[in-house]
Design a protein that fits this description.
The structure holds two protein chains of two kinds. Chain A is an all-alpha fold. Chain A has 28 helices and four strands. The model of chain B has no long low-confidence stretch (mean pLDDT 89). Classes of the chains: A mainly alpha, B alpha/beta. At the A-B interface, loops of A face helix 4 of B.
């Protein structure tokens, strides 16, 4: 019997419930439960579909611990495969298959056959049968492996049950806890971390490699700068190897710090959840957590020097309204431990970087000629080595080391965007602010070239780097020159350049307003031999031309819609009704007429009349064509 | 101011300049460099010389030299400063509302006025006209009285 404190019970609705304080895992209960459960499942197929992964897990667990026999297992698996769409998902099937492959080969083959029959070929087969020879697959597909018939095997199993007592049921509580975690999570995620223990999360400090390299680095730092000017066979130099190792180590330390930061964050979330969004940098976060500890009142905690004062203020204010509760002592202990570990990792990273920096003139002379050895060391460290730095495009080099700025509240202080370690170079600091972005890009480009030269050891003396530096300085100087003075130009010869005529819809519409109307055109013409009418009669006054004469082909000449007039009318209307100041206070929209009584006057009616008078009076505005034939 | 512009004292100079200015308007100012109104005019001429240099050239004719008296008689110059315009050896006239169309008497009020006049004459000349209308409003045209001998 196992000494577990939890019991898994199959409840009627098909969900696993955890029944605490039930004593040990009782084999009899489990099997009875199974015997009840499996037929239940067979009746309630919909249940199987929904809770398949859980159920499936339980099934496999039972099989693993020999609570069910092979035949029972197969039956249940068959039920699962037939009914459950969820079971057919890749991860569940794969997991089941992997398990069965190791535990029960024949059962596995049967299972494959089941799957092939049921149909989830595409999901299951390629994964499981990756290493199989083709005959095996064909055998499986031809049919099942037959043992005894299922019913007979059931009967046989009933007698077998009592023999399973002495199997190893002494699984410790660790497994039960694992199960508990896993059951709550995704079945397929086998690598669920056990967060209780820091060591399982962060392993770097315990590794051999780490301690070795740190030792060597410390020795080398104490020895001082020992420049060996070989330049020839560099790769054999043990120091070069150490430097390469240092680079990879610094990247590893970075990753490790991130993992530890996640760990601390998760633990500290119970106490102060908002802190992670206020303080982004992992090391700062670790320091702050260490300082605050389990303190509830943040006025007793002095965060000076750890954070900028604006952030301290925000943190204190947030802490007073936080929803967190103080941590229990053991979790607090673990958190503080993790913080310490993060800080030591940070310190060792600094040491590594110092060491690399001191050797930088030897490793990468051209690069350090341009940006300085400190920045060069940082760049190399972040990139993960000189060759990786050389492989990066210049735009990436520019962004190495950018910090995510945390603007609290409504602050609109714009940080210098898109500048990383390059910001710390002397060249960048001495350029005027207007040219900083261009200078940054230039420095990044040249330093990439220098890094490439250094990665193949093309110029050990650093002459190329100095040449680049000169070039950069010259370019920045040139940018700062004033523009040449403007010469007064003589006037161009009149009428020598033809006027640019514009065209287009807009111009046409504008011209239309001033175009000659049809009425005027008619008035301008005269019929032959027919004297025209005139305004004053008898040939005096303005002549009417063809207007109003018989036989000019037009039935009625009405005043066409003059667009100019329409525009003027619109302006007039707007002016009238938007002036507001000139209307008398006694006007109202109500009018009393003797015939109809109260008559509400529409104030827009007058304006509308102006427009509607020019509408065509011949054609109806509501009627349409009676028949339109499609051709 | 007149040292900035070309001053012509000899008759041959005047002849050659009238003949040799091709496709550009020639502005000849007749006057004395010591006269105050002439100085004003000269100031404006020198300032605008570079601006109109593409379509006009400017020269000063000294009224006091003996060789130029012929020209004074020919153009009937009695008031100074007087400005005469030529285009391709043709004498260009301008109707500015005054009695005399053949020349411009007096100074200009502004540099822009002068440039306007020059441009107008140039346009007219390019079109083939020999007389153009003055673009300036009458208040900016210097008034003068012509005294006839016998009247």
């Amino acid at each position: 019997m196992s000494k577990g404190s939890m019991v898994h019970q199959v409840s009627v609705n098909g969900r696993l419930t955890i029944d605490e304080d039930k004593g040990s895992i009782d084999e009899d209960e489990v099997t009875t439960g199974l015997k009840v459960g499996i037929p239940l499942f067979s009746f309630n197929r919909s249940l199987v579909t929904r809770s398949a992964p859980v159920w499936l897990y339980f099934l496999v667990f039972s099989r693993y611990h020999f609570f069910v026999s092979q035949s029972q297992f197969l039956l249940a698996a068959q039920l699962g495969v037939e009914d459950s769409a969820v079971f057919r998902s890749t991860s569940a099937a794969r997991w089941l298959g992997q398990f069965m492959l190791t535990a029960n080969p024949i059962g596995f083959l049967n299972f494959v056959a089941l799957c092939l029959d049921a149909g989830p070929l595409a999901h299951f087969l390629p994964v499981a049968t990756r290493n199989w020879p083709t005959p095996a697959i064909s055998i499986c597909s031809q049919g099942r492996f037959t043992t005894a018939s299922l019913e007979d095997s059931f009967l046989a199993d009933l007698e077998d049950l009592s023999d399973n007592d002495n199997e190893n049921l002494d699984e410790d509580t660790g497994d039960a806890e694992h199960m508990e975690d896993d059951v709550n999570g995704d079945l397929a995620d086998i690598e669920a971390l056990n967060y209780d223990d820091l060591d399982s999360v962060s392993k770097l400090q315990k590794t051999q490699r780490y301690t070795e390299i740190m030792q060597k680095v410390e020795e080398a730092l104490e020895k001082g700068s020992n420049i060996s000017n070989q330049g020839m066979v560099l790769e054999d130099d043990p120091e070069y190897q150490l430097i390469v190792d240092c680079n990879t180590l610094s990247v590893d330390i970075e990753n490790e710090i991130v993992i530890i930061h996640n760990f601390i964050r998760d633990k500290y979330r119970l106490k102060f959840p908002e802190l992670e969004s206020l303080v982004h940098h992992p090391i700062d976060y670790a320091r702050v957590v260490k300082k605050i500890g389990n303190e509830v009142d943040l006025t007793l905690v002095d965060l000076e020097g750890l954070l900028p004062s604006a952030v301290i203020m925000v943190v204190s204010v947030t802490a007073s309204t936080t929803s967190g509760k103080p941590l229990p002592q053991d979790i607090l202990q673990k958190t503080i431990e993790a913080c310490d570990r993060a800080l030591t990792l940070d310190a060792s990273k600094k040491k590594v970087l110092d060491f690399v920096e001191s050797r930088m003139g030897y490793i990468a002379p051209n690069l350090s000629a341009i940006v300085g050895s400190a920045v060069a060391a940082k760049l190399m460290g972040t990139a993960g080595g000189l060759t990786s730095l050389a492989k990066m495009p210049a735009c990436n080099v520019q962004l190495l080391g950018t910090k995510k700025k945390n603007l609290a509240g409504f602050s609109t202080a714009t940080s210098q965007f898109r500048v990383g370690y390059i910001e710390q170079t002397e060249i960048f600091q001495t350029t005027p602010p207007a040219l900083k972005m261009r200078a940054c890009r230039l420095v990044a480009a040249k330093s990439t070239l220098a890094a490439r030269v250094d990665s193949i050891r093309g110029d050990p003396s650093g002459k190329q780097g100095r040449a680049y530096r000169e070039e950069i300085h010259k370019k920045i100087e040139k940018w700062q020159e004033p523009p040449p003075a403007k010469q007064p130009k003589p006037l161009p010869v009149p009428d020598s350049e033809p006027k640019k005529k514009r065209g287009g819809r807009r111009l046409r519409k504008m011209k239309e307003r001033y175009a000659i109307t049809d009425m005027r055109k008619l008035a301008n013409r005269m019929q032959f031999g027919v004297p025209e009418e005139s305004s004053l009669g008898d040939g005096l006054g303005e002549g009417y031309g063809m207007l109003g004469q018989a036989g000019n082909g037009k039935l009625r000449v009405s005043v066409g819609q003059s667009k100019l007039a329409a525009k003027v009318a619109k302006k007039f209307k707007d002016k009238q009704y938007s002036s507001g100041g000139a209307t008398s206070g006694l006007t109202s929209s109500l009018a009393f007429t003797p015939v109809q009584g109260i008559d509400l006057i529409d104030p827009q009616a007058d304006a509308n009349r102006l427009g509607s008078g020019t509408q065509s009076t011949y054609f109806s505005e509501t009627g349409t064509f009676s028949k339109i034939k499609r051709t | 101011m007149s040292y900035l512009l070309r001053t012509l004292t000899k008759k041959e100079d005047v002849d050659s300049i009238i003949r040799d200015t091709i496709d550009k308007l020639l502005v000849l100012r007749f006057g004395r460099s010591s006269d105050s109104v002439c100085l004003q005019l000269d100031d404006i001429l020198s300032k605008s010389e570079q601006d109109v240099s593409k379509f006009a050239s400017i020269a000063l004719v000294d009224v006091d030299s003996e060789e130029n008296q012929v020209y004074l008689k020919y153009f009937d110059i009695t008031l100074i400063p007087s400005t005469v315009f030529f285009f391709n050896a043709h004498h260009m006239k301008m109707d500015s509302g005054s009695a005399d169309h053949t020349k411009w008497v007096g100074a200009f009020h502004r540099k822009q006025d002068f440039i306007d006049v020059v441009e107008e004459i140039f346009r007219g000349a390019m079109k083939g006209k020999l007389i153009v209308k003055c673009p300036l409003p009458p208040e900016r045209i210097p008034k003068f009285q012509l005294l006839f001998k016998d009247v």
